[in-house]
Records
---
Amino acid sequence: MTPLQKLGGVSAFVAAGTFVFGLLVALTTLNGYVTAPDPADAVAELLEHGSMLALWNTVITIVFGVVMVPLALALRDRTAGTPGDTLGRIGAVFGVMWATVIIAAGMVIGVGLTAVSDLAVTDAAAAESLWLAVDTVGNGLGGGNEVIGGVWVILVSVSTWIARAIPRWMSVIGVVAGGAGLVTMVPGLADAGAVFGLLMIVWFSLVGIALWCLRPAHSRTAAVAPHVRASA
């Protein structure tokens, strides 16, 4: 395995970990913030759990976005020079795009929530209005829908399926996850994001194993072919 493949495998495990961390914290400590019925409640939760909210945002956006880059490149390398090459290249672009958008969302949310916290001390109404703006922009960039992530995982899964770059059943899971991500753009179906997140935890974990431990089927075939010709 090349260093990029191993780095991609580690990155996939970290990506899965960020999803697990994000989900667990959202269901426990920050559940009140995530489910807050209005800006006033959200700001109150922010003031109470500011440190955890900052850590949560950093992990699910900045850390995730950073590890997405080597993962996208490692998966692209797996399809290079195969029938899945074209889709693999397009997928790599969407992977880097997803990383960029998610990191941008994290930066906006991080700075915005600090500003909301400071403003809440002197002007509660203004803090609530600012929170609504930050939340809307942050969700628009990442979290409110999973369109870019869905497109990326579908392209990667189809390209790896064609190239037999990872076990094909893993690619099928990726396509299903990507489909769930695309559904989040449909009004009223944003809850499909939970399905996307759960399936991506599974897919990231499996891809990490594949990148770390398994050679692509097409490379194994290429390695065997010279021996076959020699024996003939």
Note: The chain has one domain: 3-214.
---
Amino acid sequence: MISADNPTLLRLDPIAVPPYSARGLSEEFTLDGDAQLARTVNNTMIDLGDGTQEKYALTITCTDQNMPALDGVRRGMVLTVDCATEFSYLTTGGAPSREVASSTDDPAIRTEGAFTLYRPRLTMMVVGYRLSFDEWGAACNWSLDLVER
């Protein structure tokens, strides 16, 4: 649940998210799957991939008062990420493409009109991260790059 002590929906397991390190965070998702798009001799776009499920790459960025708990985090480390971002699908005939985050007091799934919105739980590997500090602005800037496993 979002509160003064825990002002974000983001969960990173096993490293956690310290208070005042992720307020106003941004999550940017891109596809990182096996799609191999190419054009035929007739200029028709085709996918040469094996048809397996697309994976996500995720970059989380934030500027806040404290640094996140990234000490000891290394490339290749596996994290369970309960995202703050909501994915959506058409309720009738649809289903979530990823596991639904369920470790928080906040509802991770809801309906709005004909759509169901949910916060996904993703198993991801750390690609890298960046930390910077603005002393005069008292701002801790960070970003975490992840790819879905």
Note: Residues 11-34+56-148 form one domain.
